[in-house]
Design brief:
The structure is a single chain. The chain is mainly α. It has six helices and no strands. The chain starts with a helix and ends with a helix.
């Protein structure tokens, strides 16, 4: 049941990022919203299977974006790795930690983009890179990522509670049916 939550979340964020936000002038070049999900997955689990889920999410974004393939996969996996390393050094419930990780996550994606531009067009093109876009996306990331993670955590806790209640009621109903058969 947990996978249903993350599939729904991924679809919601992809639709929001690719269809809804570009229609607003303030958010037409918003940061990658799936960073919110990647950070949340990084916070709630350290299991290696999360990396597979992150790679799948990256494949989805690489498939629908006009950026070179593996851009999202690499940036998402590196975000996950850095969060896991930093989680070992600091405590993860800190508000400052979430703000810093938000800035680092958006910067990682821009570093990969800058590297891609450098590889394809040479060193001269680096100075033509839109650093204003980086600053705007970091600003929006700092404004939206921490509250989004807190809201997502509340939804996640609610989802877990409801699935436990649903599973209990489902098991109770099957036990009653088995008792009636005997």
């Amino acid at each position: 049941m947990q996978i249903v939550f993350f599939i729904d979340l991924t679809l919601f964020l992809v639709v929001t990022q690719t269809i809804i936000l570009p229609s607003f002038s303030w958010f037409d070049q918003c940061f990658d919203l799936l960073i919110i999900e990647i950070l949340f997955l990084s916070f709630i689990s350290s299991h290696f299977s999360i990396v597979l889920a992150i790679i799948i999410i990256g494949c989805v974004m690489d498939s629908i974006s006009a950026i070179p393939f593996f851009y999202h996969i690499f940036s998402y996996v590196w975000i996950y790795i850095i969060v896991q390393i930093v989680k070992q050094l600091l405590f993860q419930r800190s508000t400052l930690f979430i703000f810093i990780i938000s800035i680092i996550s958006i910067s990682i994606q821009h570093c990969f983009l800058l590297f891609s531009v450098f590889v394809h067009q040479g060193a001269e093109s680096i100075w033509e890179f839109n650093f204003g876009l980086l600053i705007r996306q970091v600003f929006w990331g700092v404004v939206f990522i921490p509250p989004s993670i807190w809201v997502l955590n509340a939804f996640w806790q609610n989802w877990i509670l409801k699935t436990k209640i649903f599973q209990k009621s489902g098991f109770n109903n099957t036990e009653d049916k088995v008792d009636r058969i005997q």
